[in-house]
Write a structure and sequence with these properties.
Helix 6 links the parallel strand 7 and strand 8. Strands 2-3-6-7-8-9 form a six-stranded mixed β-sheet. The protein has a three-stranded mixed β-sheet with strand order 1-5-4. The protein is α/β, with parallel strands linked by helices. The radius of gyration is 19 Å and the shape is globular. It has a domain of about 160 residues: Alpha-Beta Horseshoe (pyruvate-formate lyase- activating enzyme), CATH 3.80.30. It contains nine helices and nine strands. The longest helix has 13 residues.
Length: about 250
């Protein structure tokens, strides 16, 4: 029977492709049974690593994405979604796109300070900023560090528009700030919901909120007057479509 590392989307930790010499071909080999057992013995716990960026906003140049700026208070994501497109970005930091991505989380504690400095600059032209676009702003680390809540406070203080995307019901904690932002049409929330099948969800997104919790959150946000829509990506034919279509 194969060993399964509970609570982790990735079951392996492949080499960082950028650490390979240029004349080697990067191949992601599946771990052997013995290697899985060794990973399980290590009991991979989440590590929080503080980093010190000099800027916090990312300019979005892609014509396929309808926004101008994004910002990410966390790098890596403990949600561990197996399909996450952001996994490869963890290699830029010297880590693996596998287990490292959901185990080694980089924390930008100075993000609120950097945001305020940017928005108060005389040359800043107001434009909606997306939180986050790369990794989830309400992943488990947010319970401890509350960086997202501090960022929302900056947006409220300066009456600046912000949009958000998450798949975690922890966003309900910040209903007080979101409600105030919504009064002046300064916030828009997107909730991600890929499937209503909880067993499948635990495999694809092991540390995200349950589908029922996400549905409750959508209801609460809407009742509070906060604009919210649902993003159902990623869709897997034959797996996730059926439940969502009947909903």
């Amino acid at each position: 029977m194969a060993v399964y590392i509970k609570g982790r989307g990735s079951q392996l930790n492949p080499a960082n492709r950028f650490l390979k010499s240029s004349n080697e071909i990067y191949v992601e080999d599946l771990p052997t049974q013995e290697e899985r057992e060794e990973l399980l013995k290590e009991n991979p716990k989440t590590k929080y690593i503080e980093v010190f960026p000099k800027t916090i906003l990312n300019k979005v140049d892609s014509p396929d994405i309808g926004l101008t700026w994004s910002m990410n208070p966390y790098q890596g994501c403990e949600h561990g979604c197996i399909y996450c497109y952001a996994r490869n970005t963890h290699e830029y930091w010297g880590y693996s796109s596998g287990m490292d991505f959901e185990q080694n989380i980089m924390i930008k504690k100075n993000a609120p300070e950097l945001l305020r400095k940017t928005l108060e600059h005389k040359n800043w032209e107001a434009a909606s900023i997306m939180l986050a676009g790369n990794t989830d702003i309400y992943q488990p680390a947010e319970r401890k560090f509350q960086i997202t809540r501090e960022l929302l406070t900056v947006f409220l203080d300066l009456q600046h528009p912000v949009s958000m995307i998450t798949k975690n019901s922890l966003i309900e904690r910040d209903l007080d700030i979101l409600t105030e932002l919504a009064k002046d049409n300064l916030v828009f929330v997107t909730m991600s919901l890929t499937t209503l099948d909880e067993h499948l969800k635990r495999i694809m997104e092991p540390r995200t909120s349950s589908a029922n919790s996400v549905l409750r959150t959508i209801k609460r946000l809407t009742e509070a007057g906060i604009p919210v829509n649902v993003m159902s990506l990623r869709l897997f034919r034959g797996l996730t479509m059926k439940g969502l279509l009947t909903w």
